[in-house]
Amino acid sequence: MTDETLPTVRLRPKANARAIRHGFPWVYADELVTDRRTKALAPGSLVRLEDAERAPLGVATVNPNSKIIARMLDADPGAVIDRGWLAARLARALALRETLFDAPFYRLVHAEADGLPGVVIDRFGDAAVIQPNAAWADRLLPDLAAALAEVTGVTRIVMNGSGRARGLEGLAERTEVIAGAIDAPVEVPMNGAIYLADLTGGQKTGLFYDQRPNHAFAQRLARGGRVLDVFSHVGGFGLAALAGGAESATCVDGSAAALALAQGGARAMGAEGRLTTRQGDAFAVMEALAAEGARFDVVICDPPAFAPSKQALEAGLRAYERTARLAAPLVAPGGTLGLCSCSHAATLDLFRNASARGIGRGGRRMQLLHTGFAGPDHPMLPQLAESGYLKALFFRLDG
Strand 365-372 to strand 391-398: parallel, antiparallel, or no bridges (unpaired)? Predict the structure, then answer.
């Protein structure tokens, strides 16, 4: 489509057109003129966006069912959003990852920060998982998958249509293999460890690449020590610690399937004898370990997003404080407590304060050693705070 064939939508006078011109990628529902014609546009439609004075801002996509009613795709109002355009964006993303990593295991596309709003793509060697979390990407999925195969050479592609973001867009949940065959978990090498990623039935895309640099930091601290990995998923911190020479690792998670994958990863590494697992509610397991007198040199807690929205912020901060309070007594004197948050609503300051309160209420004194964030395959769009969601705090505990 060219700009002549696209319908036009317009910002309201009070909308911040300057922010759009400077790279902010979203238009909220109360910022757009939503007349009958605009409301009738199908979710994911491509449009020409103008400011209130009818000056062009570029090509966007609209979803009248979403609070984010428009997402910017290209500042060029004449841009043609087709397979070639998608391939160019993917090639740009691939060039960055190939500079950063020696092996094709990484987040290939990190949504708005890579110029593909609402799209997440994780790569697992010759396989990739696409999360089309915006209506436009759902509509263009065949072209997106074809461009992905063309640019990267992957032969197996999974569409993972699950999660909160799709619900906010009014999209149905579905997961399907759209190219090749996925008949077993995929082995993923990272930080010297081997992880097993379930690309069709696992959580999100099957593995969390964002913690890679934080795994590496914890790995150094865990050499020769005993490690507790709480909310471990497939063994993120625990397996990294074992690969770095930890004496032992205990993984705690509510999912038996995730713990089985952690055990499979340890087996593939030849470290099965140094890994133990405990299935159950993480808070209950931490309380039980404290009652047993268990102590570890490194304790890591990497929970799901306790504060996925501003409405959930206060409850989420209490949950982070509770996590720190229960974890702190499990750390041996002089040991390390790592606390993570993937909640964009919980800013670094709020999360750090909640963690420090919890550690203090757990009866421990602390010093903050290191603050970690997502790896560089999860670039942040500076204009969009939500793209910088991950925080990892590493405390040394005394007393």
Answer: antiparallel
DSSP assignment, residue 175? Answer: E
CATH class of the structural domain 8-74: mainly beta
Q: What is the C-alpha to C-alpha distance for residues 98 and 192, in angstroms, rounded to an integer?
A: 19
**SS3 letters for 290-348?**
HHCCCCEEEEEECCCCCCCCHHHHHHHHHHHHHHHHHHHHHEEEEEEEEEEECCCCCCH
Backbone angles phi, psi at 249, to 5 degrees: -140, 140
Contact 196, 188 (CB under 8 A): yes
Q: What's the pLDDT score for residue 4?
A: 59
The catalytic residue among 251, 301, 340, 342 is: 342
CATH of 186-201+209-397, one of 3.40.50.300, 3.30.365.10, 3.40.50.150, 3.30.300.30: 3.40.50.150
**C-alpha 230 chain-centroid distance:** 18
Write the CATH number of the domain with boundaries 83-179: 3.30.750.80
Question: How many CB atoms are closer than 10 A to CB 139?
Answer: 17
Q: Does the annotation count 342 as an active-site position?
A: yes
| pTM summary value | 0.95
- The C-alpha atoms of residue 397 and residue 257 are separated, in whole angstroms, by 33
pLDDT of 210-226, one tens digit each?
999 999 999 999 999 99
Q: List the beta bridge partners of residue 171.
A: none
